[in-house]
Amino acid sequence: MERRLLCSLFLAAALFGVASAATRRHDWDISYQFTSPDCVRKLAVTINGHTPGPTIRAVQGDTIVVRVKNSLLTENVAIHWHGIRQIGTPWADGTEGVTQCPILPGDTFAYTFVVDRPGTYMYHAHYGMQRSAGLNGMIVVEVAPGAAGDGEREPFRYDGEHTVLLNDWWHRSTYEQAAGLASVPMVWVGEPQSLLINGRGRFVNCSSSPAMAASCNVSHPDCAPAVFAVVPGKTYRFRIASVTSLSALNFEIEGHEMTVVEADGHYVKPFVVKNLNIYSGETYSVLITADQDPNRNYWLASNVVSRKPATPTGTAVLAYYGGRRNSPRARPPTPPPAGPAWNDTAYRVRQSLATVAHPAHAVPPPPTSDRTILLLNTQNKIGGQIKWALNNVSFTLPHTPYLVAMKRGLLGAFDQRPPPETYAGAAAFDVYAVQGNPNATTSDAPYRLRFGSVVDVVLQNANMLAANSSETHPWHLHGHDFWVLGHGAGRFDPAVHPAAYNLRDPIMKNTVAVHPFGWTALRFRADNPGVWAFHCHIEAHFFMGMGIVFEEGVDRVGDLPPEIMGCGKTRGGH
Q1: Which of 136, 286, 320, 442 could form a disulfide with 243 if both were Cys (CB 3.0 to 4.6 A apart)?
Q2: What is the CA 4 to chain-centroid distance, rounded?
Q3: How far, in Å, CA of 259 to CA of 256, rounded?
Q4: In 36-87, where do the E strands start and end?
Q5: How far is it, in rounded angstroms, from Cα 506 to Cα 361?
Q6: What is the DSSP-derived secondary structure letter of residue 51?
Q7: What does DSSP assign to residue 567?
Q8: Which of these, 192, 197, 206, lies nearest to 299 by C-alpha position?
Q9: Are 68 and 28 in contact (CB under 8 A)?
Q10: In which residue ranges is the amino acid composition biased (Pro residues) (predicted)?
C-alpha cells in the first residue's frame, strides 16, 4: 500500500511542476478535553489537547502526512481537508460514508495527500456534527519558489500575515443538538452562545444562573481575546476562514479598510470593503495597512448576518506596536463594530457579484456545459421529522462508503436509481410561497458524471415551511474548484438567465452562497476520479439531508488502502 501511495503522490507532485517538494508530518491525538473558549467550561474535541488545532503550513506541491489517533473512546472520527482537491488520493478526503469508514475509537489512520494549489484553506471533522465540537483548524499553502515565473510570486505585496479562524460556539453538546434535530417535534439547535475568533470569545451572561456562574470564569486564559500585532505603516495579509456550524458572518477590522485579494485559494480582482461577508466553508485573504493612530488598539469584530442575531459580537484586538501610550492587550476605547443590517441581502449579493477573478490569473470556463442539474432547495417533512431536500429528495449517507462500494462492486450498498436532475413544475414554481405539499422522500443515490464532462449546477433557494422565510446556504464541493457563473433573485429560468452568465472572469471557488429566495449557478469539469460530496456547509442542514454526491471516473482510481474499510458491507474485510 505504501509503495502504491508513494507512486500516486510522486505523480501528483510532477503534475504540479514542483521539483523540490517536501514531506511534512504531523501526529495528532484526538480527545475530549475540558476547555473554556468563551469562559464557560465545556468538553470539546481537541487536537493534542487544543482547539482550534494547529495551523498546517506547507508549500505548493508538498506532501502532508497527518497521523490521527482517535482517543475519543466512545466516538468515531473523520477529518476533511477542506479545499484540498485530493488529486490521486480520493480516499484521503476524510468524508465518512463517502470516501472512508470512520476511524474507530483507539484506532490510528494516516491521511497522506499533496497540497497542489497555494492559498488559504481549512480542516475540520466530517463525522456527525463533530465540527461544532471543536475539531477544526487552518491550512496555509505558500506559492512554490519559481512557480510564478520571473515576476511577483503573487499579484500583491505585504510585510507580514495573520491567520483568523472564525467560529460559532454552543454550550449544549453535539449529541444533544443531533438528538433534537432528529426528534418529533424537532428541537432546533438555536443560535450560538458565542462567536469565537481563533478559538477565543466571551460569553456575556455568566450570571444568568447559579450553575452558569459556577462554570464561567471570565479570567480564564482560554478566553482572553486573541491579539493581532501590527507595526505602524506596514501592510498585512489577513487569511480568514469561517468554520462556523450555522452562522453567516460579517467581519470587520475597526478603522481599517480591507482589500480583498484571494478567495478559496484563487486570486481576486482586488476590491475594497469596510467589512467582509463570509459564509461557513469560505476563506479569504485581505490586505490592511496599519495607518491609524498607533496610540490605541482596534477591534476585530464578527457579527451574525442573514439570521436575526441572538449572539453578541465576537471580538479580538488589533494591537499597534510602538505607540507611546499603548499596551498590546489594552482594550480599545470604542464599542466593537456592530456590522451591517443582518437582513440586508442586497448588500451581501453585491459582494458576491464583485468577487471575480484577477485579470492576470483568470481561468476561462468552458463556454458551454454537457449537462445541467437544477436543484431546488426546500424544507420538508418525512415521517413527522423536519428535513431538507433537493428536488424533493432528502440525502442520507450509506453505511458502506461510496468509494469502497463502487470499487468493489457492492451494488447493494446504495440506491442504484438515478436521482432527479430537476424538480416538478420548475417552469412555474413560486419560490416565495410555502409549498402546498411538504412531504419528501429519502435516498442515497449518487449523481454519476461522465468523466471529463462539463457540468452546470444551479442551486435554487425557496421559501421554508414558515411563510416569508428563506435562509442563506453556503454550498461546498469536495474534490473540485468550480466557476461561479452568476447569482440571481427569484426563480431561475433556464431559457433566460444563462445568457447573462459571467464567462469572462468568473471566480473559481470551492464554497459559494445561495442567497435567500435566489439562485446561484456554477460550472465544473468532472475530471478528478473519485466520489465527492456536495452539500450545504451548515452542520445541521447537512445532518438533515441538504446534500448530494457526485461520482466520476471511479474506474480510474487505483487500489484502495484497506485502512479506509471495515464498516457496512466491508465489515471484517481488512
Answers
A1: 136
A2: 30
A3: 10
A4: 42-47, 56-59, 63-70, 79-82
A5: 11
A6: S
A7: S
A8: 197
A9: yes
A10: 330-339
Cell of 233: 505603516
Picking from 516, 369, 508, 555, the residue whose alpha carbon sits closest to that of residue 85 is: 508
Instruction: Please report the DSSP string for 86-119 in residue order.
Output: -TT-GGGS--BTTTBPPBPTT-EEEEEEE--S-E
Which domains, and CATH codes, for the chain? 23-142 (2.60.40.420), 160-354 (2.60.40.420), 371-570 (2.60.40.420)
pLDDT values of the chain reduced to their tens digit, one per residue, 574 residues: 444 444 454 445 544 445 578 999 999 999 999 999 999 999 999 999 999 999 999 999 999 999 999 999 999 999 999 999 999 999 999 999 999 999 999 999 999 999 999 999 999 999 999 999 999 999 999 999 865 543 458 999 999 999 999 999 999 999 999 999 999 999 999 999 999 999 999 999 998 878 888 999 999 999 999 999 999 999 999 999 999 999 999 999 999 999 999 999 999 999 999 999 999 999 999 999 999 999 999 999 999 999 999 999 999 999 999 766 778 888 999 999 999 999 999 999 999 999 999 999 999 999 999 999 999 999 999 999 999 999 999 999 999 999 999 999 998 999 999 999 999 999 999 999 999 899 999 999 999 999 999 999 999 999 999 999 999 999 999 999 999 999 999 999 999 999 999 999 999 999 999 999 999 999 999 999 999 999 999 999 999 999 999 999 999 999 999 999 999 999 865 4
Q: Order the strands of the 314-320 sheet from edge to edge.
A: 227-230, 314-320, 298-305, 248-253, 275-278
Cell of 535: 452539500
